[in-house]
Design brief:
2 domains, binds NADP nicotinamide-adenine-dinucleotide phosphate, alpha/beta, 6-stranded parallel sheet, 3-stranded mixed sheet, Rossmann fold, 6-phosphogluconate dehydrogenase C-terminal fold
């Protein structure tokens, strides 16, 4: 706990999974004194050792059920496809009155996987910080990751209101703004704001990779003309994104259908030489960029490779 800090929000917080998100939480909790004791558990001994070397917690447990024993807050930060197995593994150690949350990028599937294992008396409140980078692992985290970013909580209808309020205060202390949302609505919104852009990026970078060798070398050489911006998204963790695609399938397929229709219309406008149609669309999209900057979710500074963001 940070020295001279006020009373921590939680006595003991257990972090299950200590990659980009888990280790960012560990760092911000330490820096801002949000927990008296942080216990860390992760699947592999190599990652647990690394978390220990980085001094991310006060205790390090190979056994996830042991790690959550006595914890007031348990945060599961693993790929969404693993959340059911993790919930099953930690269930015997969860104490009555504890809050259990997660950070997964899909919500309905996580609820379906985790809820059946949650013991009576434990407050299960799913969550998703809308903050991240293309890096992963315990070295990738940084304490300011959540500053000014949204965190969406998707409590079940029967959720304990006081527990939701306390978890909201926790995320606010981590730097986030908090919104509460229905899980299905979350999955629809994130399908367009996050999942589709990543899928498009994976696709365009994959197409470039399939080009003939000489063209491919020019793609790399002249990448600053646009391609490079897609490669950042397409460098994101393959396991995480495989799981997102498999676990938000319906909403993603819906958005992909709409995207394909719009792409067909755009293709037709280009083929027919409909300059006004193109100009109207590009003007409309430019305004979206403006509103993201106005909402404080990016800066208007020219971006030559995100040199201005904190180094992980
Ligand atoms: P990460 O850096 O790759 O770390 C993943 C962690 O989960 C590691 O501790 C890893 O353990 C553990 N893990 C991986 N597979 C597992 C399995 N099958 N069973 C149990 N544990 C497993 O991932 P991250 O970026 O922190 O993402 C964690 C969660 O946050 C995901 O659900 C993701 O959807 C969500 N999220 C990510 C971002 C982002 O931008 N990255 C943003 C918001 C939310 P070992 O290393 O010990 O194997």
């Amino acid at each position: 706990m940070a020295e001279n800090s006020p009373e921590p929000l939680f006595e003991t917080v257990a972090l299950i999974g200590i990659g980009l998100i888990g280790s960012s939480l560990a760092r911000v909790m330490r820096e801002r004194g949000l927990a008296r004791r942080i216990v860390i558990s992760t699947r592999s001994s190599a990652t647990l050792r690394r978390a220990q070397e980085l001094a991310l917690g006060d205790a390090f447990e190979a056994d996830a059920a042991e790690a959550v024993r006595g914890a007031d807050l348990v945060i599961v930060s693993v790929p969404v496809g693993a959340s059911g197995d993790v919930a099953k593994a930690i269930a015997p150690g969860l104490k009555p009155g504890a809050t259990l949350t997660d950070v997964g990028s899909t919500k309905r599937s996580v609820i379906n996987q985790m809820a059946p294992h949650v013991p009576a008396g434990v407050h299960f409140i799913p969550g998703h910080p809308i903050a991240g980078t293309e890096h992963s692992g315990p070295d990738a985290g940084f304490a300011t990751l959540f500053d000014g970013r949204w965190c969406i909580l998707t409590p079940l209808p029967e959720a304990n209101a006081a527990a939701v309020t306390k978890l909201t205060a926790f995320w606010q202390a981590c730097g986030s703004k908090v919104d509460v949302m229905d899980p299905d609505h979350h999955d629809t919104v994130l399908a367009i704001t996050s999942h589709l852009p990543h899928i498009i990026a994976y696709n365009i970078v994959g197409t470039a990779d399939d080009l003939a060798t000489d063209t491919k070398s020019e793609v790399i050489k002249f990448s600053a003309s646009g391609f490079r911006d897609f490669t950042r998204l397409a460098a994101s963790d393959p396991v995480m994104w495989r799981d997102v695609c498999l676990h938000n399938r319906d909403a993603i397929l819906d958005m992909l259908s709409r995207f394909s229709e719009d792409l067909t219309a755009l293709r037709r406008a280009i083929r027919r030489g409909e300059g006004d149609t193109l100009h109207d669309l590009f003007t409309r999209t430019r305004a979206i960029r403006r509103s993201i900057i106005d909402a404080g979710q990016d800066t208007a500074a020219p971006d030559f490779g995100r040199l201005t963001t904190p180094k992980p």
